[in-house]
Amino acid sequence: MRIATFNINGVNTRLANLLAWLKDTRPDVVCLQELKATDAQFPAGAIADAGYHTVWQGEHRWNGVAILSRDAEPIVTRRTLPGDPRDCQSRYLEAAVNGVLIVCLYQPNGNPRPGPKFDYKLAWAERLNAHAAGLFDTGAPVVLAGDYNVVPTDADIYNTRSWKKDALLQPESRAAFSRLLEQGWTDALEARFPNEPQWTFWSYFRESWARNAGLRIDHMLLNGPAAERLTDAGVDRAVRGADHASDHAPVWVELTDAIDHAAR
């Protein structure tokens, strides 16, 4: 079972890129972020023609998340991150697909900081951590996939010099992500490439793609039952190099079929 996450940076603007990638790689489940489309504007028909069932949570201009499934229709279990009933931004979607609980998330960027956007980022991260703690212990395989807008360590960026003041690298942002991992989640890319940090984002500015000046901010975290089924993980870097590409590349994990513990 291949599960992927992809910040598409405008699902209609980059629809051709998305459809080409789906055709080439045929992931079983895909989490999309930054749809930049309302519910009515989401290209459900084109994605269905590509062979995918879809659930989505749109938003005008910004944000928006979706879960695509090739074999079975996702069963939505939650459309909002709990903890703040006033929060109406479309950044969280949770659904069950073939026995795996898939969480698609788009954590706030937090810039500029200091200020209300950074405060919202940190509060959102704490809400995620609180909810994730319950998900971790469900007993079912759980995958937390998405754009976390956090560079976990200095090894996860080409160079920190131009990013020192950015919300993605701040100690508070990193500490929140670290507390999430301390619950026991496995960072799939870090586990697969412990000595070779994998970039997932290259800014449109300063020829970042041409210079391979990347960052790792898209993460796939697995609880115990999911982690024991992990066989591989990676980044589809070539997607970032296509014409009219998103500034992110898809990240994916491969999980084996369900493990029968009783048969062991």
TrEMBL record:
Gene3D superfamilies, A to Z: Endonuclease/exonuclease/phosphatase
Name listed for the protein in its UniProt record: Exodeoxyribonuclease III
InterPro entries in alphabetical order: AP_endonuc_1, AP_endonuclease_F1_BS, Endo/exonu/phosph_ase_sf, Endo/exonuclease/phosphatase, ExoIII-like
Cofactor mode of binding and number, as noted: Probably binds two magnesium or manganese ions per subunit.
Family under the similarity heading: Belongs to the DNA repair enzymes AP/ExoA family.
Claim: Cell membrane is one of the keywords in the record: no
Cofactor or coenzyme needed: Mg(2+); Mn(2+)
EC number: 3.1.11.2
Organism listed in the record: Brevundimonas goettingensis
Site (Transition state stabilizer): 149
Residues that, per the record, bind Mg(2+): 7, 34, 147, 149, 247-248
Site (Interaction with DNA substrate): 248
